[in-house]
Write a structure and sequence with these properties.
The chain has 3 helices and no strands. It is mostly helical. Its main location: membrane.
Length: 90
């Protein structure tokens, strides 16, 4: 199997996982879509800055990872706040 088939399968799996998450949390879809986009960017071998450039090649991956973690944190925080609101109402 060629390497690009493996990458394509990985991208499709990540897309399906992202679609399931987006459907599950459709009211908070922006956070999950952005987290999925950054996750795909980190997983693919394509970079804005190639990794053979010392340090600069890793910076774009690091920034994408930090942004992805931030969007996931915001999504989880909104879920937790919604759950707390439901408990207070009942």
């Amino acid at each position: 199997m060629e390497w690009y088939y493996t990458v394509l399968i990985a991208i499709l799996v990540i897309f399906v996982i992202g679609a399931v998450i987006a459907y599950t949390f459709r009211k908070r879809i922006f956070n999950w879509v952005m987290a999925s986009i950054f996750g795909i960017y980190i997983a693919t071998p394509l970079d804005l800055l190639p990794d053979f450039i010392p340090l600069a090649g890793w910076v774009d991956d690091l920034v994408a990872f930090i942004l992805m973690a931030g969007f996931i944190y915001r999504g989880v925080k909104s879920i937790r706040n919604k759950k707390i609101e439901r408990e207070v109402k009942s």
